[in-house]
Specification:
29% of the residues lie in helices and 23% in strands. It is built from 13 helices and 22 strands. It starts with a strand and ends with a helix. 45% of the residues are buried. It binds ligand LLP.
Length: 475
Amino acid sequence: MATSTSISPIFPMGSAVNERGVLEIGGCDALELAREFGTPAYVVAEDDLRARARAYVKAARAAHPDLNVVFASKAFPCTAVLELFAQEGLWCDVASGGELHLALAAGFAPERIVFHGNAKSVEELRMGLERQVGLFVIDNFDEIDRLGGLLAEGVGSAGGSSTGQQVLIRVNPDVKGETHEKISTGQADSKFGFSMAEAHTAIERVQGVPGLSLQGLHAHIGSQLLDLEPFQRAARELGGLGDFPLCDLGGGLGVRYTEGQPTPPSIEDYVAAVVAAAQESGLGAGKRLLIEPGRSLCANSAVTLYRVEAVKQNVRRWVSVDGGMSDNLRPMLYGAAYEAEVVDRFGEATECVIAGKHCESGDVIVPQARLQDPKPGDVIVTPVTGAYGYAMANNYNGVPRAPVIFCREGEARLVVRRETFEDLTVRDQSSVRDLPTARDQSSVRDLPTARDQSSASDQSTASNQQREAAASNGI
Ligand code: LLP
């Protein structure tokens, strides 16, 4: 049983320090989690995730008669997370064939899937049409042509139906919110969507394509926005572009990463404010609305556990942990601030740098942490890693990607296992060992030249075939 020792509200709800002085997430002791599942690990408080989904659904119901909440799956593209949100009645935003695959595998009804992207391939468009996604969000004129072409070929059943494939047009409303420039998308000079000047032409073009059914407009002005005013301005801009049955107001509500940062608007205030602005500009009763939160649905629901590998002192005290830019790229990409604690010694005594294990100086997770006497073997926690951490994880330095653990009422459940070293080589198809070895070669001059490349690839295909034949013979 957790005692009432207070803990920062940036941790998942229900987090506490137990009577042994150890952090608990979802009722699970962080030291035991580290022992059982290893580190680094993403630890998700399942009830927190559900509570945020419910808060969104409730706020949506209160704000508008027909408003659906679409989870931006890029924030945490993990099947268990998607399944939970599907169960809670959310829709799903996907931005690639891979995300579409994940959303379908997690059980989202295709008609609740919204397909985004500024560079959708023909194959991705074909997949979306064949799987009958609810909405495509068209980003550019080439996409209109590609969709039109696929429908003319009879791809997907929507092309032949009387209503057609429902689509939205992404408009860039030229509204710039205050956020990191790499995640700001509403300014005129952005790669996303049609400019306000092009919007009317895009609308006419889409309306002229047989098999496409234009439902309305979409805008997403950026991410980690803490001020509601730009969202409202964007909603007004959309309302001014015409009368349509549906409007997708995008995502972008920011979260608090450190205790020192200002408290962002609540989910309720955000939903009420953007919906009111939309309603004032003609998107009132009788219109369907969508919002697409990602970060604010999952960032604060998870923490990352690391183990300290080494501590050294030079100009500063360096605490090196067993993860870093392979499990959380945000500090390196956006200068994003995080906090850290030793899970069984919350406190502030020692100023230190929490560095990752990767081979570059920029691999710093928290540049100015204050930890209680950190030592090798300690387990460290960084809160607020539920959004865009797992999503942007990578294998830099051959580090296997971390597992995801769901915790609820003291029960821990592994929902994504840690990658293994074998996973790092599992996609390999051919190796230089398949080419003739040095022994077989009289000299390096016999190695294939550019001219001989086709024969070299024949050779490697041949050796692949030999290997496959050997494998099927049980050799
Ligand atoms: N809708 C669209 C079309 C989007 O592109 C995004 C995010 C969202 C919704 C959800 O936005 P959110 O509610 O999560 O702010 N990797 C960056 C964030 C990139 C956001 C990309 N698009 C980060 O770690 O901060």
